[in-house]
Design a protein that fits this description.
1 helix; about 90 residues; mainly alpha; about 0% strand
């Protein structure tokens, strides 16, 4: 085998290796793109989840505040009135 044949064989091997590398690089780029897209989707979903959790937390705070107001301004006066009625009933008996 002469030098020209050896050079052609080497060229073909390098070229084939380059083609395989390019195919692998395209596949890797596609995989990286898919991972980035997935991470972005997770980030968006996580952001939406955090927003929903903040809303739920705010709702719990509002309900607690409303319950406290209900207890202080509605239930407590009624309870105080009942206690006074019971005291009055006991003094009469």
């Amino acid at each position: 085998m002469n030098t020209k044949d050896k050079m052609n064989i080497m060229f073909n091997e390098v070229y084939a290796s380059n083609v395989r590398n390019n195919i692998n690089l395209r596949a890797l780029e596609g995989a990286i793109s898919d991972v980035k897209e997935t991470l972005l989707r997770i980030d968006i979903e996580l952001g939406n989840t955090l927003i929903l959790l903040d809303c739920a937390d705010s709702l719990v705070s509002l309900i607690r505040r409303d319950n406290q107001m209900l207890r202080n301004f509605v239930l407590q006066p009624i309870m105080n009135e009942k206690i006074e009625e019971e005291k009055h009933d006991r003094t009469i008996q």
